[in-house]
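so im writing up the methods section and need the DUF4332 domain-containing protein record in one place, dumping it here so i stop losing it
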Amino acid sequence: MFTMNPLNLPDATLQHWIMLFVAGTLGFIIGYISRKGMIAQLEGDLASTERELADCTRVVTAAPSDQESLILSRVRARANELDFSYIGRATAAEADDLKDIVGVGPFLEKKLHAIGIYTFRQIANFTKEDVAKVNDIIEFFPGRIERDDWVGQSAEFERKKRNA
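--- predicted struct ---
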């Protein structure tokens, strides 16, 4: 009787080793990618938890306006972490109404002004690294700047401003 046994093939052992190598390589790649994503998420959670801890350890018995100025001074102290050579510099006299950007409210606009971000052009020049750094400095929700597409919205506002 005719029997088909794959192990009787002359190169069956080689095929098994190749399949084992491919499966191991794919497993390593998938694990590496998922681990990187998990690390990024945990680092964001850690940064936010550290900020909350710092806020909790500070004894604040100030009025809300004093609390706002305290937060703005903390944000202003970190402004030197940004690379304005690429973003560009602007002054308060040149300021655009950043509240036009979806996701930017009055207090967030004050935080952006505190670090030297005044115009749509500056936000439109953000790289991914700048977005992450600004997000961290202004103590905003991780990933929110990308989800709200501040860079794209700012580029569109800047285009409209030039054409007007």
